[in-house]
Design goal:
Number of domains: 2
Helix content: 25-40%
Number of helices: 3
Largest sheet: 7 strands, antiparallel
CATH architecture of the largest domain: 3-Layer(aba) Sandwich
Oligomer: single chain
Strand order of the largest sheet: 3-4-5-9-8-7-6
Shape: globular
CATH class of the largest domain: Alpha Beta
Number of strands: 10
Distance between the termini: 74 Å
CATH topology of the largest domain: Protein Transport Mog1p, Chain A
Structural class: alpha+beta
Radius of gyration: 22 Å
Length: 191
């Protein structure tokens, strides 16, 4: 005859096994198992994946080059503690051909842009790497913010007079994660 104590021990072991399997699954796959949404933007000529539905927030900003329309697509996951990143963002801006064109010194353009980012968010530049995306000049940038509490990771891409800024904001303890990689690696230009 099986005692009640014996049944509870067996059920506790099964329950513990189920919890362990669930924990292992979420630790191993994390956000990778979430449904990612492909944003295929014909108007601005790019494709990228977000781990949820981004919002669109176009804005006109004053810059040293004049008023520029910034087309911002953002997903804010900062209230959801299980996500790898707090914010995912793509910003697309188109500058007048007379100001930004193929003859521009891209090193100076990116240096000015990165310095502006660091200053505006009161951060500290951790890393800047010269890269290319689909044959176009680009930079990979990491900026420490909030006294080391978070990291802004960006890809800056200049396609003639079109400027793309891809960005994640991540708690420092979750920096350089698979979800961030997937976001950046999913970016494609449509020519």
């Amino acid at each position: 005859m099986v005692s009640l104590t014996g049944i509870l021990k067996i059920n506790n072991k099964k329950l513990l096994l189920v919890f362990f399997c669930l924990w292992f699954y979420f630790e191993t796959y994390g956000q990778e198992s979430a449904d990612w949404i492909k944003l295929d933007n014909e108007e601005f000529g790019f494709i990228i994946e977000f781990p949820g539905q981004p919002t669109s927030n176009p804005q006109v900003v004053n810059t040293v080059l004049g008023k520029i329309k910034m087309n911002v697509f953002q997903l804010d996951l900062s209230t959801d503690s299980i996500n790898d990143n707090l914010i995912y963002m793509v910003n697309y801006s188109e500058y007048p051909d007379s100001i930004i064109n193929e003859s521009i010194d891209t090193d100076d353009f990116f240096k000015s842009s990165i310095n502006g980012m660091v200053t505006n968010i009161h951060g500290r530049l951790l890393e800047e790497t010269v890269i290319d995306i689909d044959g176009y000049a680009a930079r990979a940038v990491r900026i420490n913010i909030n006294e080391g509490a978070a990291v802004v990771t960006s890809r800056l891409v200049l396609v003639r007079n079109k400027y793309f800024i891809l960005m994640t904001i991540t708690e420092t303890r979750k920096d350089l994660n698979k979800s961030m990689d997937r976001f950046f690696e999913s970016f494609q230009l449509k020519q």
